[in-house]
Amino acid sequence: MTDVPATADRPLSRATVPAMLADRAATGADRPLLVVGERSFTAAQVRDRVARAAAALRARGVQPGDRVLLFSGNRVELLDLILGCAWAGAIAVPVNTAWKGQQLHHALANSGARLLAAEAELAERLSDLPDVAEVQEVWIIDGDPPALPVRAARLPDYASESHPVEPAHPVRPGDTAALLYTSGTTGVSKGVLCPHAQFYWWGFNVSRQLGITPDDVLFTCLPLFHTNALNAFSQALVSGATYVLGDRFSASRYWSQAAARGATVGYLLGAMVSILAGRPPSADDRAHRMRIALSPATPASLLAEFRSRFGVTLLDGWGSTETNAVFASTPAEQRPGYCGRLQPGFQARVVDELGAEVPPSVPGELLIRSTQPYAFATGYYRMPDKTAEAWTDLWFHTGDRVVVEENGWMRFVDRIKDVIRRRGENISSAEVEDVLRQHPSVRDAAVWAVDSELGEDDVMAGLILEPGTAPAYPDIVRFCEPRLAYFAVPRYFIRLDEFPVTENGKVRKADLRRLGPAAAEWDLEAAGYRLQR
Fold first, then answer.
1. Closest Cα partner for 446 from 480, 478, 494, 398?
2. Closest among 192, 208, 6, 220 to 111, alpha carbons compared
3. Is 102 within the bounds of a domain?
4. How many whole angstroms separate alpha carbon 82 and alpha carbon 80?
5. Cross-strand bridge partners of residue 401
C-alpha cells in the first residue's frame, strides 16, 4: 500500500481507529478526551481501556474479522467495546436498542456474530427469538446474567489496570471497523461495511466544516449505533477536542446538560430542533456555551428562530451511513432550506430515471463518489445484489431526489421511494410537509401516499398541532392553496399526538402508510371542498 498523505499532516496508513487513538494519546495524553456521566477520561486512559477491552475479546476467542454484536444504550462500556473491536481487528456491530423479534433476529443472522454484549434487559429479548443464529455467548454489561437460551456471563472486568493489554492489530485503512445497520424504513435493514478510514474522513471533514479546535467540547446524546454519534467521536480524535456522551435526548434537560459539560458544539436532528423550539422559554435557553450544532434535516423556518432564542447556529449538511460529509454549509455561508455545497474530496451528479444528467435546478437522483481513499462504505454485508445495485457504474446511488442550483447549492427534495404520483405529476412529500409546518397551528407534519379510487395515489397528511389548537382543516387547505400546486394539496388529514420514528429520528413512513383513507378525520372531497386551479 502506497503511504500517500490523507491530509497535509497524516499519511493514509495512520487513518485507522487504532492509529487515531494512539496519535491522540501521544500528542495530548493528559487532556480530557471522553466524558460519560460523572467520569472523565484522558486520551491515554481511553487508549488503555480500549487495549484492555481488545484483550478481553481476544481471550474469548474473537479473531480479526469476527463480528461482535453490541446491544446497549449509550455508556462508556459500549464505546470501549466498539473501539476495542477495531483495536483487535474485529468488527463491531452496534444495533438499535428498539429492535426486537424479526429485526433483531435479522441482525444476528446476517452478521453471523458469535459473541453478543448487551444490557441485561435487552438481552432478555433473545428468549423471544426462534433461534439465536450463531451466538455462542452473551456478555451482560450491567449486572447479573438473566436466564437466556445461550450461555451468559458478566462482562469481563477489563477496566482494571491489572487486566492484560492487547497490542493493536495491524489493520489497514480499508479494513472493516464496524457493521452499521440502516434504519430499515423501506425494507430489511442492510449492514453497511464501514472501513477504518471512513471514520477518519468523517472526523477530518466535519471538523473542518464546523471549525472544531482542541478547545471545543462536543456534546451528543444521539445513540452510538448511529453513525452521527460515532463520527462525533472521530471528530474529537482528529481535532483534539473533548467528546461528551450523553444518555439520551431529553428536551427538558438538554440545555442544562450542555451547560454543565461546557459544550460548545452540539449534534441535533430536525425533530429534536422542533421539540426544543416548541418548549416554553426558560432561563436555560442561553445559560450555556454552545455556539454551533450540526443539525441535518432541520426545517428552514426554524434556523433564524433557533439562533435568536438559543444563540446557536444550526448547520445543515448531507451524508449517510454509506458515505461521508459530502455536502455542507458553514457558519459563514448558509442558505435556509439547502444542505450546502459539495465539499472537497467528492464528486456528484444529478440524473433522471434513465441515468442521464439533468440541468441545474432540475430534480433528479443524487449520485456521488469520493476521491478520499476509503471515505465511503465498501458495500452491504452478505447482500451482493444490493451492493451492486447501489454502486452501479461505480457511483453510489443515494436514492435521494435533490436539486443542485447553478451556484452549487443542493436542496433535498425527497426520498425517491417517498415521491407521490398524482394526476400524472410527481409530488414531493417533503415539500408539502414544509408548507404545512408553516401554518401557525401545525407543529409538525408528515405526508404519504394512499390508494386512490382512480388507480393512482392520493395525498394524506398527519398533523401534530400546537397545544390547545383544534384542527381546522379547511383553513389549513386554504393556507396550502397559494403555496402548492393544486394536485399537491393533501386530500386526507388526520391529527396525531406523535409520529412513529426510528431511534435516529426518521419518521417511519411505512408505519404511517397503514393509516389509509378510512382512518382520516377529514376528507377534502367528501367535505365538498373545491380546490382553486
1. 494
2. 192
3. yes
4. 6
5. 365, 414
Which of 162, 195, 228 is the C-terminal boundary of a domain? 195
Quote the CA–CA distance of 174 and 374 in Å, as a whole number: 6
Segment 294-300 mean pLDDT: 87
Shared domain check, 496 and 378 = no
Structure confidence by residue, pLDDT tens digits, 324-335:
999 999 888 889
Inter-residue contact 466 to 275 (CB < 8 Å): no
CB 18 within 8 A of CB 86: yes
CA gap 138, 115 in Å, rounded: 6
Boundary residue ending a domain (166, 195, 224)? 195
* Residue range(s) defining the domain that contains residue 470: 419-523
Q: What is the pLDDT of residues 170-193, one digit of tens each?
A: 999 999 999 999 865 445 789 999
Question: Which band of pLDDT confidence, cut at 50, 70 and 90, is reported for residue 454?
Answer: low
Strand partners, 92: 68, 178
According to DSSP, the β-strands at 457-465 and 492-495 are parallel
The structural domain count of the chain equals 3
Buried b (16+ CB within 10 A) or exposed e, 330-343: beeebbeebbbbbb
Chain position carrying cell 458544539: 265
Is residue 301 one of the residues assigned to a domain? no
- Give the whole-angstrom CA distance, residue 69 versus residue 87: 16
CA atoms within 13 A on the CB side of 214: 8
429 lies in the same domain as 391: no
Indicate if the pLDDT at residue 501 is higher than 90: no
Report pLDDT digits (tens) over 237-290. Answer: 999 999 999 999 999 999 999 999 999 999 998 878 988 998 999 999 999 999
Grid cell locating 133: 443464529
Three-state DSSP state, 495 = strand
Residues 366 and 424 grouped into a single domain? no
8 A C-beta contact, residue 395 and residue 368:
yes
pLDDT in tens, 16-45: 999 999 999 998 778 899 999 999 999 999
| Segment 500-504 long-range contacts (CB within 8 Å, at least 24 positions apart) | 501/271, 502/96, 502/98, 502/183, 502/185, 503/96, 503/97, 503/98, 503/183, 503/223, 503/225, 503/226, 504/183, 504/222, 504/223, 504/226, 504/228, 504/269
Q: Which residues pair with 10 in a beta bridge?
A: 7
- What is the reported pLDDT for 5? 53
Looking at residue 437, its amino acid is R
